[in-house]
Specification:
- The complex is a heterodimer of chains A (122) and B (107).
- Helix content of chain A is 0%, strand content 50%.
- Chain A has 122 residues and is mostly beta strands.
- In chain A, a hairpin with a 5-residue loop joins strand 4 (34-39) and strand 5 (45-51).
- By secondary structure, chain B is mainly beta.
- In chain B, strands 2, 4, 5, 6, 9, 10 and 11 form a seven-stranded mixed beta sheet that branches. A four-stranded antiparallel beta sheet of chain B has the order 1-3-8-7, with no helix packed on it.
- In chain B, strand 9 and strand 10 form a beta hairpin.
- The chains are: A mainly beta (122), B mainly beta (107).
- The interface between A and B is medium-sized, with 22 and 23 residues.
């Protein structure tokens, strides 16, 4: 079955950096686009980033552009999110999610991980 | 960027009631709209894709429609297990954007 397991969350000071990982299994990772979505405590969903199945295209929310970098290693079935210049407003549960169909463009996500909590605080 | 709005922000209805949630896009997104259900303490679940296509396993009391830049999610007969926050999301163009959510509970 499809599994997505995030890791790497924790407490980081404002201005600091943190890297998240998402280990995927149960499907052919190299054929699916992947996304990161975050949710601040008690708040709504905020889309963060997308990476195409082969890593050739990446898109970001305006709020994280220039500070966050999405990447993937298809040989390790792993998705990454490198975050720098972190702000208090970046505090959230970060979810990785799989595109609904392989190789597609303009698709929603269907499977979500359980999320990893990032807290930006001094 | 495309902005998504939802109304109402919350609603309370009785079991068996018909519930309608509206989502509006700030510009045309064709049918590139999804609806997600997030139950308390759970991860979101994809209910509807392509504005009106019900995902496998989703109860038939859920339906959705589109008219221009206005999209509607309807629960024909509200059940206790439908208590959740519902989000629309446009995936027509990056940055993808979610609506602010509609919280549904039982009266």
């Amino acid at each position: 079955q499809v599994q997505l397991v995030e890791s790497g969350g924790g407490v980081v000071q404002p201005g600091g950096s943190l890297g998240l990982s998402c280990a995927a299994s149960g499907f052919t990772f190299s054929t699916y686009g992947m996304q990161w979505v975050r949710q601040a405590p008690g708040k709504g969903l905020e889309w963060v980033a997308f990476i195409k199945y082969d890593g050739s295209n990446k898109y970001y929310a305006d709020s994280v552009k220039g500070r966050f970098t999405v990447s993937r290693d298809n040989s390790k079935n792993t998705l990454y999110l490198q975050m720098s210049s972190l702000k208090a407003e970046d505090s959230a549960v970060f979810y990785c999610a799989r595109d609904f169909v392989p190789g597609g463009t303009r698709v929603p996500v269907d499977y979500w991980g359980q999320g990893t909590l990032v807290t930006v605080s001094s | 960027d495309i902005q998504m709005t939802q109304s109402p922000s919350s609603l309370s209805a009785s079991v068996g009631d018909r519930v309608t949630i509206t989502c509006r896009a700030s510009q045309g997104i064709s049918n590139y709209l999804a609806w997600y259900q997030q139950k308390p303490g759970k991860v979101p679940k994809l209910l509807i894709s392509a504005a009106s296509t019900l995902q496998s396993g989703v109860p038939s009391r859920f339906s959705a429609s589109a008219s221009g830049t206005d999209f509607t999610l309807t629960i024909s007969s509200l059940q206790p297990e439908d208590v959740a926050t519902y989000y629309c999301q446009q995936y027509n163009s990056a940055p993808l954007t979610f609506g602010p959510g509609t919280k549904v509970d039982i009266k």
